[in-house]
Specification:
11 helices, mainly alpha, flat
Length: 224
């Protein structure tokens, strides 16, 4: 048998493709954050030259748009058939889970203008799901924005926000905090990670209660 020129000790390099590059880019951003991303760092993870990546994604904007697509695909619209409120609740819970899976990218996703074809289709499905409540026009727009503000803000906060943010140079010690700031200390225990889901669902249900009440009022006024 003829000798092979391959080095058996050398790690075999997997072939590049757009999907593999995007998935590895997402993993890098989730680990290092947006500031830690570069084509050079991504190429090192993929065991290739940085210039090879530009064949698939001409710029970081093109690549990050693919990562937005990953987030959209991981946040599906619940199928029709269930009550509109349950569908909205499940969708918002799914969005939260997407944020927690991708803490490094959620800020980009949340602030990305979804004005490409995939993004517009995503928004169209969300608005259509909410319109099943019977609301339309300004009322639908108000509830769409209010729920969007709440869900994106809560998701960002849980994934990368307050608890992981900078702290005071000289923070108040626990004993003094309990003595001088009893109100905030008393409820502080409920801000921990173990309570995040309950807090999120509580706020979401308040918004959906109001939306349901407005929808009922609209149905009542149109039936007169």
């Amino acid at each position: 048998m003829p000798e092979t020129s391959q080095n058996p000790g050398r790690k075999r390099r997997e072939p590049l493709n757009a999907e593999r590059i995007a998935q590895e880019a997402m993993a890098l951003v989730d680990e290092a954050g947006l500031d830690g991303f570069s084509f050079r760092n991504l190429a090192a993870r993929l065991n290739c030259q940085a210039m090879s990546l530009y064949h698939y994604y001409p710029s970081k904007a093109h690549l990050f748009e693919a990562l937005v697509g990953i987030c959209i695909s991981e946040t599906p619209i619940p199928p029709e058939g269930a009550p509109w409120r349950a569908r909205i609740f499940d969708f918002c819970a799914s969005y939260r889970q997407t944020a927690l899976r991708h803490p490094g990218f959620i800020l980009y996703f949340a602030t990305f203008r979804l004005n490409n074809a995939a993004g517009m289709a995503f928004l169209e499905d969300i608005v259509g799901m909410m319109a099943a409540s019977g609301l339309g026009g300004q009322a639908l727009a108000l509830h769409f924005r209010a729920i969007s503000y709440y869900v994106t803000g809560a998701a960002i906060d849980e994934a990368m926000g307050y608890a992981k943010g900078p702290s005071a140079v000289d923070p108040v010690a626990g004993e003094r905090a309990r003595a001088d700031f009893p109100a905030i200390t008393a409820i502080g225990a409920y801000f921990g990670k173990d309570h995040h889901r309950a807090m999120f669902e509580h706020g979401l249900n308040i918004l959906l209660d109001r939306m349901e009440a407005d929808a009922a009022s609209t149905r009542s006024s149109t039936s007169r």
